[in-house]
Write a sequence for this structure.
């Protein structure tokens, strides 16, 4: 944890940490403290007077059916995105882990979508599935599906989930591949000699050995679904139709944009911080397990 | 091994190609659309092969801007994105390598407190504190400025943790040797530590450049002037709610241009990218 030999200087270390400390205090701690403070205050409509109201903002927020719906929706989105993206990525990674010709080309062709920004992902997908001009939308209508995500909330939600999962495939693929490559080949060979078929080998050997990677990726994917899908939602549906795609982060944004209730929006931010802290704590537990594996 | 490897291999190739098709199709379609006539796209008559409007559309997108809305040409947006991404990447590397150096190679009061203060910022992504941060940026007069775009995104702990971890592995002997040579903290940093950190810095730069380039929510809030908007924000403003007014070839050309720099970085610097990604997630 600590180096044996260090430099001695009274002022130099402070000078070195000063830039980061200033940025961190001004742009992280101060706003976070403001959010916490604001969440306990009630401001009148003109911003002239404020009163300290303890947990009233939270109580009001949690009693709001809209907020509750948004919580549930965000978790459903996160589960759907993580499940679909992880399973497809795992399948691809298992295939790419085989000694195939041109495997490095496959890898390159599968990882680049990591670099596509969420709003661009949104534009690409809305273009394919736009009810009036999207190519896939025409296909769906041709097989008799009444496809209109601009009106149908469930279809809009499906659209967000598909696009978000698409972007995350490359990330998951990369980590699964790294996880697979760290499993010694001798383990597989031993099982093959014992007569275990490939599918059985996968479920009894590979999959259990991958669990640390899987847990780690689940946390990462949930964090992604919570926060990074904002750009996708904003370009595709803007939270609509009728709030059917409004996640927690999107709600903070759109409630704040309307400039309404400062206390409530601050309370929403504080709850989100709580969720991130919990997720990070979980991640660190599993990362530690990954290291000791 | 003993099984019929041949068939399995074909299946693996096939599955991988299907996977590639799934990831590539939306982008291919965007490229094709960017080379076609707007009327054909709006009618749903789009061809699946590239059309003949490539030069025309890209010239218009880059230097003129879409005609339906009074938006800036995408060239300006690309420049803004580039400045933002570079400032975030370089700024973050700069401030975090210094603070990691202080935390690992010096002993001073509250050393661990400082470390924890930085560490906890890992848990506060910009999305959860947007409006308070916005208010501070406004109070500091940072709206519509490059420093406003970059500063709040610079400070998170990932880079500091990475450098700290790396510095911990630098053997004590190196430092003692340079001390015997009469090097002070500054010379040791410049002549020994910086050259050793080169690969780590490059890997980090790749990841942070992509991170910075792809920022969306923060630039959306903090830029109000059209000539300050980044390309990610510009794209969304091009999509007009009524489909008929959206100039799809321009939108698609903008999407292609928006993804080109980070995608090229991933492909060209793949080794550094993978390393950076795995290292920063630890």
């Amino acid at each position: 944890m600590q180096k044996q030999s260090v430099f001695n200087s009274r002022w130099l270390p402070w000078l070195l940490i000063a830039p980061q400390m200033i940025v961190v205090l001004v742009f992280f701690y101060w706003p976070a403290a403001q959010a916490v403070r604001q969440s306990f205050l009630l401001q009148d409509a003109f911003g002239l007077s404020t009163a300290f109201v303890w947990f009233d903002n939270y109580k009001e927020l949690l009693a709001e059916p809209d907020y509750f719906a948004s919580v549930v929706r965000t978790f459903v989105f996160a589960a759907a995105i993580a499940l679909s993206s992880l399973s497809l990525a795992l399948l691809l990674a298992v295939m790419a882990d085989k000694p195939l010709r041109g495997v490095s080309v496959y890898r390159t062709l599968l990882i680049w979508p990591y670099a596509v920004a969420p709003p661009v992902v949104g534009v690409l997908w809305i273009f394919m599935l736009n009810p009036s001009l999207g190519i896939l939308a025409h296909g769906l209508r041709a097989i008799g599906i009444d496809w209109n995500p601009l009106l149908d909330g469930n279809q809009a939600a499906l659209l967000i989930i598909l696009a978000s999962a698409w972007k995350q495939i490359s990330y998951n693929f990369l980590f699964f591949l790294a996880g697979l490559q760290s499993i010694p080949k001798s383990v597989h060979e031993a099982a093959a000699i014992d007569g275990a078929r490939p599918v059985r080998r996968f479920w009894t050997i590979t999959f259990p050995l991958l669990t640390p990677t899987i847990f780690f990726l689940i946390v990462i994917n949930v964090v992604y679904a919570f926060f990074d899908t904002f750009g996708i939602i904003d370009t595709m549906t803007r939270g609509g139709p009728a709030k059917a795609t409004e996640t927690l982060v999107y709600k903070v944004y759109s409630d704040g944009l309307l400039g309404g209730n400062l206390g409530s929006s601050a309370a929403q931010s504080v709850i989100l911080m709580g969720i991130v802290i919990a997720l990070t704590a979980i991640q660190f537990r599993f990362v530690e397990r990954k290291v000791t594996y | 091994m003993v099984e019929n490897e041949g068939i399995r291999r074909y299946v693996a190739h096939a599955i991988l190609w299907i996977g590639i098709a799934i990831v590539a199709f939306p982008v291919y379609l965007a490229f094709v659309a960017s080379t076609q006539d707007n009327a054909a796209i709006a009618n749903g008559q789009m061809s699946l092969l590239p059309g003949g409007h490539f030069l025309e559309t890209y010239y218009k997108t880059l230097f003129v801007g879409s005609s339906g809305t009074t938006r800036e040409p995408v060239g300006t947006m690309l420049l803004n994105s580039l400045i933002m991404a570079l400032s975030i990447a370089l700024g973050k590397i700069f401030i975090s390598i210094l603070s990691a150096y202080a935390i690992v190679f010096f002993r001073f009061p509250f050393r661990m407190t400082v470390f924890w203060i930085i560490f906890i910022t890992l848990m506060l992504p910009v999305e959860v504190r947007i409006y308070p941060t916005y208010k501070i940026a406004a109070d500091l007069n940072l709206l519509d400025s490059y420093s406003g775009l970059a500063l709040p995104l610079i400070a998170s702990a990932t880079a500091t943790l990475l450098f700290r971890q790396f510095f911990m592995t630098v053997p004590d002997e190196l430092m003692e040797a340079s001390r015997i040579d009469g090097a002070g903290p500054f010379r040791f940093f410049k002549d020994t530590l910086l050259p050793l950190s080169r690969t780590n810095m490059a890997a980090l730069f790749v990841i942070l450049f992509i991170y910075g380039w792809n920022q969306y929510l923060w630039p959306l809030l903090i830029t109000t002037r059209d000539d300050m908007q980044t390309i990610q924000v510009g794209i969304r403003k091009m999509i007009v709610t009524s489909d008929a007014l959206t100039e799809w070839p321009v939108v698609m050309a903008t999407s292609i241009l928006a993804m080109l720099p980070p995608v090229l970085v991933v492909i060209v610097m793949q080794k550094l990218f993978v390393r950076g990604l795995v290292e920063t997630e630890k």
